[in-house]
Amino acid sequence: MRTPSYHNLMSIPFSSLDLIPSFHAVMTHGSLSAAARALRLAQPTVRRHIEALEAELGAQLFTRAANGLSPTELAQNLLPAAAAVLEEAAALHRIASATKDAVAGVVRITTSRVVAGYVLPDLLVAIAKTAPDLRFEVLASDSTENLLRRAADIGIRFAQPTQNALIAKRLADVEVGLFAAASLPLPGPRVEDMPFVADDRDNIILPAMAAAGMAVPKTIALRSDDPLVQLAHVQAGLGVGVCQVKLAARLGLVRVAPDFRHMMPCWLVVHEDQARIRRIAHVFDAIKRHLPQLI
Q: In terms of CATH architecture, what is 6-93?
């Protein structure tokens, strides 16, 4: 069976667009009851939506499993398209939430989990003081979100975007180094002898150290692909880990192996159509001015 794409999913004449959020919620939450709670609908309503969607697609989307509903291969293939439809709908709502020329309404920002958790709070507080009628949504993700589909209005990224319809402003590079909590007793000056906090399946940190000519640590105290988890355990004193230099200073971390420096390019990105909306342009300009002081 040919897998429907985002565009031909949009072209299917569904009896109701309510079918798509119900499908997405069941895929996300794993059961009709959990999806109904998330959507604040009655469970029979969600069940009817799924049955109607299956009837209109002419295919089964879920089978019953011991722990809820198990999606079919077709359902798995449809999930990105359904998510894209919901992103477009959310963008439509954000655009309609305020007039084009007012610094008011909702601005949605996507950035990495570390920046979202440790940098954006101070930044958005400062922006809110200049425009109290602004409201924010933050999509904290280390994956590259597609601004072309309006998953967010503004993106802070550490890789250069390639889509032609995006406006990208390169900011100052972000320096990353190796840091430890002041409470962590270090066995000596050699990094290979220090307990270390590293990533897991992503396997980026240790190869980057090796490429910089550093010996690989003998003791990996923790592995996690979640950078917030890594940073939390570095702060707690479990081991040495990577951190942005300016953020480490605010957190009171101590730099080790100062010869290790990694520079990350930082890009501030907005869709060219969104850049014409005043509230988005206001936030974009404020981030452009203030972000380099924080990262």
A: Orthogonal Bundle (1.10)
Model pTM?
A: 0.68
Spell out the SS3 assignment of 98-164. Answer: CCCCCCCEEEEEEECHHHHHHCHHHHHHHHHHHCCCEEEEEEECCCCCCHHHCCCCEEEECCCCCCC
Residues paired with residue 67 on neighbouring β-strands, in sequence order? none
Pick the CATH number of 98-171+265-293 from 3.40.50.300, 3.30.420.10, 3.40.50.620, 3.40.190.10: 3.40.190.10
Q: How far, in whole angstroms, is CA 270 from its chain's centroid?
A: 15
Residue 109, burial from CB neighbour count under 10 angstroms (0-12, 13-18, 19+): buried
Q: Name residue, tokens 């119900």.
A: 22
> Each residue of 34-83: pLDDT tens digit?
999 999 888 989 999 999 999 988 889 999 877 678 999 999 999 988 88
